[in-house]
Amino acid sequence: MERHSFAMELKEGKKNDYRRKLGEIWPELTAFLDQEKVHNFSIWNCDSLIFGYYETDENHEFSEEKKNQIQALTAKIEDTFTWISTPGENMRLMYHNFGVVRENKELIRHRMFMTKLKPGCKEEYKARHDGLVAAREGKIDPGPDSNFSIWSAGGYIFGYDEIDTTMETEETPEAHEATVAWETRQLGIMDWITNDCDWLTGEIHSASVRLAWHN
């Protein structure tokens, strides 16, 4: 399986138009996804930002004809947004913990978060998360995170996580202390857009909302 992502920013006052036009193209879009065997497609929103995630079979590539179909669909809605990522290309993968990916999504909880990197902090963010990957020493994480990836483009961070709810447990005092230390340190290199750390900072942000999903 290969994972893909994209991001865009809604033009001022165009959020309702984006949602309406997405609904208008949805039947044609989902038919295309089914035809091309694109799985686990979802679109998320917080404030003016849009994040998209989807999966394909390994080594899958769209033909030129299919790329033209994508462009034609995008043209019907592109007056509502500007691209953050490069169309047709993945954003930079900053972190991954794919673990044991669950085919059955009924007991999966999704978490999607967004942050804005402080100037010059992109490589520091990547290095810190490379350290987390290295600490696993190549071992498969059984969960509860089962399909966790973090992407970056245009100075933004977009995280997508599928969490097995049957494996979740309450955070221990020691784990909470470690979480506070990590998130406090992260505040030195990024600012939150979603509300994931409002409990720590006392600030108020919007939650990410899944606008659309197609399996």
Automatic annotation (TrEMBL):
Its EC number is 5.1.3.32. It comes from the Bacteria. It is an enzyme of class 5 (isomerase). One of its GO terms (molecular function) is L-rhamnose mutarotase activity. Keywords: Isomerase. PANTHER family: L-RHAMNOSE MUTAROTASE (PTHR34389:SF2). This is L-rhamnose mutarotase.
